Amino acid sequence: MAGTEGEDESTENAMRPPQSVVISSTEADEIPKSVDPPLLTGTVVAADVHAQTVSQPIAQSQLQYVMGPDGQMYAYEKAPFNWKHFCLGFFIPVGIIFAQLLLSVILTEDYDYYDYVQNIELEFTKYEGSALSLSLPPSNDYVIKYCSISGEDFEAYFCQFWDNDNISITKAGTSNQVGTVYKTNNTMYLEENFPSGNYTIFYEYVDQSRYQEWIELQESESVGVDMMGFVCCFLLVINILGSIISFVTGRKDMGIGFLLSFIAVPIIAGLGSIAFLW
Residue ranges of the domains in the chain? Predict the structure, then answer.
């Protein structure tokens, strides 16, 4: 009977609902709690694990030694060459001379010199003890701009031009007048003391109808040449002052640019003048 009662009690306990389990505060603290992950803000940057900073030795040529106020020598690393300063010192003067050349070409009218000026060679004979009067062709009105006389003995005579006066003929290297070219009728007159022999006179002339036009073209050309000379001299002064100021203020690179332009500007101006007058 005892066994039957034990079985009945076990069956009754099994059919009862489960009772609540009470956990002490100490046991509750030991139970791990879930922790929220921290919220990260910002930008993700990939780190270069191979990047290393290696100090390189500075060459002696890159150092500049300066005496300090305490009497000690201090070494400073020289600043790198500044190409921007160099270009300012070099290309500003060179650019100005190029602009001046372009302006001279624009302001000067282009013309062919020999389209206006013509020349003639004329042979003649001068006899001993007599004067010579020779009419110079062509027959139309013209203005002589240059003349010279050469003889068989290589003696030379040149024409001296004076404004609104007749043309004087003198022996080369002297001021002794031995002849005259009269502008009114373009006649050459040689005095008795002119040596005898066979001679050739070479002269250039411009037709009277085109003479004024030719004079204006010559004046415009001379203005361009004078302007070029003025600008060239002005730039040479600027180059000298610019190089001095640059070196004094420590801008060595700009000073080198000014010095190189000091050499380049006269060369460019000379070549430009030759091309301009060609």
Answer: 83-110+213-277, 114-212
